[in-house]
């Protein structure tokens, strides 16, 4: 039997304004080998770039998974393209999908938005 994994999703933002509101996804406990989607949305249409980060429990640093623009190709860092999929519905919303969750994906995931 597969053991449950904990996938935590919290959101932060990086931009030049402090009036942006992010809608967070709740923390998730998932079964190994399942597909997991974490969504992100904000309310500032001038923030065209959405970035996704992973912070593992044993690390104080965050690792960039990738970033992208609405209706455009998404850009991944290193090995992350095989494990994750980034999607953008529009400028205000996006999602990070873990293709097949395994224990190495137990982490806190951050969404960020920027003008560049």
From TrEMBL:
Write the signal peptide boundaries. Answer: 1-19
The answer to whether keyword Signal applies is yes
Keywords, in A-Z order: Immunity, Signal
Q: Name one GO cellular component term.
A: plasma membrane
In its UniProt record, which GO terms are filed under biological process? cell surface receptor signaling pathway; immune system process
Name all Ig-like domain ranges: 18-116
Q: What is this protein called?
A: Ig-like domain-containing protein
């Amino acid at each position: 039997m597969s053991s449950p994994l904990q996938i935590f999703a919290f959101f932060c933002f990086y931009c030049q304004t402090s009036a942006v509101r992010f809608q967070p996804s709740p923390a998730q406990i998932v079964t190994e080998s399942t597909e997991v989607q974490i969504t992100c949305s904000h309310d500032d249409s001038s923030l065209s770039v959405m970035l996704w980060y992973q912070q593992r429990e044993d690390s104080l640093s965050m690792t960039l998974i990738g970033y992208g623009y609405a209706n455009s190709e998404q850009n991944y860092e290193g090995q992350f393209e095989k494990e994750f999929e980034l999607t953008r519905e529009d400028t205000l919303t996006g999602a990070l999908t873990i293709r097949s969750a395994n224990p190495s994906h137990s982490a806190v995931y951050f969404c960020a938005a920027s003008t560049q």
